[in-house]
Amino acid sequence: MAVKLEMLRVFRVVAEQGHLTGAASVLGRTPSAVSMMLAQLEDHIGAPLFETDRKNRLTPLGQLVLEESSRATDAFARSVDAIGRHAMSTAGTVRIAAVPSATVTLLPGIITAYRRLRPEVRLEISDVDSAAVRRRVMLDEADIGILSAAVGEPADGEVILEDDLGILCRSAGPIDARLAEGMECQWDLLRLEPLIANPLCQLVDNPCIAALLAACNLEARNTTALMSFVRNGLGATILPSSAILDQPEGLAFHAPKDPQTRRQLRKMRRDQSHFSPAVSAFWSALRAVD
Known about the structure:
290 residues; 43% helix; 2 domains; D-Maltodextrin-Binding Protein, domain 2; seven-stranded mixed sheet; alpha/beta; Arc Repressor Mutant, subunit A
């Protein structure tokens, strides 16, 4: 029979009490049950742990076993206590996988409000595309996912934001200049500059976008990087209106109507998962944005 933690706990209590009756009272067991467990421990070790049957004096080996038993049972008690504190409190970690546009526009305000209420919670943010968001949530590599989907497209999760997709280009660049001349805003304007591809381009149902993507030789996923590339004259791209609310210097945003393309941000999680209070609180904080 292998030595079990309960054997060590019983032995420790008997050694500290100095007799079976007192130990049995502390343990909530009968003296015979305590004596049997001590006998099993001594049989496994192969040597006596007490000098006498009264259990009031340890052998040298018994003293060593007492030290190790105390160390083992104390460590177990600390672990159980830590698990209990984590389960009952809001402390812990929340793992969030989000598309870049959500990371830039939606999460800063949510995180600011969340930290005021739960400053002790660790937040881990992964900046990935929608396919990776789904994969990480399904594989339990993220507690909460935030992904992009076209309006009307079957998609997982709950809608928390909806806005227009449009062309992001340089101020006074070829696209912006043509619109200033009175040209109608259409997706075909993207032919005037190299297209910088990103996953949101796939949401636009227009033949010219498919052709431009086939010929594209520059792609980025991070919203900040896309803005930098456009600002530095590397081309134009497609982003949601919420990503450029502050109208960054040197950039212009135009939303074509052929067709008007709306993008949704959706939050998702594994329905069968058990969520800590910290995760549940962050999920609730991701409310629909007006």
